[in-house]
# Entry
Amino acid sequence: MISFTLKAEGLDEEVERLEAIAFRVLNMEPIGLQFAEIMATDNMAARMEGVDKDGNPFADLAESTWRRRQGMGPPLAPMDTASRIISGFETQVLPTWLGVDIIGSWPSMDSFLGYHVTGTTRMPSRDPVGIRPSAWAEMITAFDAWVDTVVMGGS
# Structure
């Protein structure tokens, strides 16, 4: 933990400004919400492209699966954006003592998502978990803008 104390006479306005910055830095929920939105957008884009977090294409579906499926979307997203891999993705932004936890999950797919992640003896892995480098870059840009706003006196 980093801690610092400033005691000075004649610098009341400056000390108040530093205290205001400290308060805004402790409230990381705004940047957490931005990150959650970036994660949801990236999940949708990657699933519609049929790729994993590294940009590798998901394995094609077996002919027997193609015959049973409804919709013509990519693997894991046969019904396009209505597919559960997109529509069932949820984010949580949980404030912590010195930050925020951002959790992405598919609660409606808990019973079988693991089979997509690991694959089975009859099904190749199509792991949807993770964030692509372009989304990480977007998060870094958003974080930098948030820090600038916090330091310059915004919210």
